[in-house]
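Problem: given the chain below (532 residues), write out its structure.
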Amino acid sequence: EKSNICVNHFATFFDFVPFKMEEYELEESAHLENLRDKCGREEIESKLEATKRPFMVRFRSQHAEFRLPELKSLATLFGFIDQLEYSRIQARLISQRREDRATSPYLPIFAPSVECIEKVATRAVGIQSFYELISVGKTFEELLENVKSYPKDRMEKLINRHTSFRFHIDSYGKKIPHSEQLEMMKKLTDSHDLWEKGVINLKDPSDFYTIFIDQGLDRNKPSNEPRKWYLGRKIKDTPVELIEKFNVKKRTYIGTTSMDSELSLMMANQALARKGTLVMDPFAGTGSLLLTCANFGSMVMGGDIDLKMFNGWDQDRNMMANFKQYQITNQFIDVIVADNARTPLRSVPNGLFHAILADPPYGIRAGARKVGKKRKTILREQKLGIIPAKNKRPHIIQCINYSVRDVLHDLLSFSAKMLVEGGRLVYWLPTTDQFKESDLPLHPCLQIVSNSEQPLSMRMRRRLITMEKICPYDPSLHDNLSAEHYGQIDLSDSSHGNLKNYWMRLDKNSEEGGKEEDAEEEEEDEEEEQES
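Solution.
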C-alpha cells in the first residue's frame, strides 16, 4: 500500500499516468527490461519503488552539454547505470546551452540508494548538489498538496524533535522577491503538522530543504508561470575545493596548452579513472590530465615528442614537480619521449591501458609534429646519392608536420590496440558551428559513448569525444584500414561549409609553419658557411 502511495505521489515526476508503462518518459535500461519480463505491467511500479528512490540533481551553470555524460559515467563507475532513470524531456533541457532554447539545471532521477548518490557526489564536477526528492508539482499549491501525500513514516524520520532545518528558494529563469520567498516558506510550514516538531536553525541546521522553481523556458522571455516546482532535502554538495585544488594558476609548472582543472576532472570522470587502473596520455605536455586521473587513484604514464615539456624550466619547475606539489608521486609511473605516429609501446593481446586521455595538438596554439625527414634533407640525400640505412650512428631526430587526419588515425589505432576491452578513449576534437555527426572519426573496435561541445568563439568549437572499446583488436582485420574506414572528413564535400575551410586552413597553417622552419634552417646554414 505504501509503495502504491509513493508511485501515485511521484506521478508528475515523469509526466505519466500511473500503471501505464507506454507513457513513461524514461530512458530504457536493462534493469527495466528485466522487470518487464518478470512482472506484469500492474506490478512494475511497486517493484521500481522497492529498488529505487527519487532524487534531484542540481547542476552548475557551466558546460551544459557535459552534464549528462559525466553523470552517466559516474553511475557506470559506481555500478548503478542500469538502475539510473530520468525523463528524456528533462534530460534534453539540462543539456541545452543556447539561449534560444529551453534550458534547466534541474534533473529528477531514480537511483538505488542514498549511498550511490553520495559516492557520485565525492567527485562530480558539473553537479552542484544532490537532494532527496520529497514533492513535485506543476503549481505551488500542487507541490504543497503532494507534501501531505508523502508517506508519513518517512516524513517522521526526516522531521522530529531531534532535527533542525532551514528553507531555501532556488529559482531558475526568474528572480523571486524576498517577500514572496518568505510567504512561500510560511505556506510550506503550514502545509504539514510535522514541520512544527522540528527546530528552525538558520546557521547550522541538520537538514536543508530547498524549493526549486523551474522557470527556464526562455532566459530572455520567462513565462508568467513556472514549468515545474520541486521540494527536496539536501543530501550532499559536490567538492568545489577539488576544482580549486587543481587550478592552473596555483600549479608549479604549466604551459600554453595546459588544460584547466574543471575540464581535466570531467575528462577523468568520463575515463572512469579509479584505483587499480592504468591511464595513458600520448600527448602529455605538462601533465594536466595525468594529475587529475592520479588524484582519483589511477596509475598514470605519458608520452610526448617534445623533451622540453617534460624537463620544464628547471629542476623545481617541471612535470614531476606538479606531482610532488599534489603529493601523488606514488601514482606516477614515468613519461617517455615518443612519437605517437611510431609508438615504442608493444601491444599485448588483451590490451594494456584502462583509459587513454588526449588533448592532441591540432595547430591552434601548438603545432602537431611527428618524427620524419624534412624536405631539404631528403633532397640533399638524393643529390649526394646517400642510401638511408636502418642502423645509423646516433643523431638528433628531425620532425615534420603532423596532419589532422594522421593525428586522428594514429590516435584511434593506438587506442584500439592498447586499450583493454571496456576501456575508454577521451579526447578533444576541434570543430566549427557547421559540425555534423558524420565528421567524427570512427574505428570498428571503438564505440562512441558521448559527444559534448564547448564553444570557443562565434564559429570555433571543440568537442570532448568519449569512446569505449567494444571488441578485441584483430591485426588481420584492423591493421590495413585506410583513412576512409575511419570516417575521416571528406574535404571535397561542399556541404561541410565553414568546416571544410577550417580543416583546410589548419593544414595550410601547418604547411606554412613548415616552410618558415625550412627558411630559418637555410639562414642558419648560410651563417655557418660564412663563419667557416
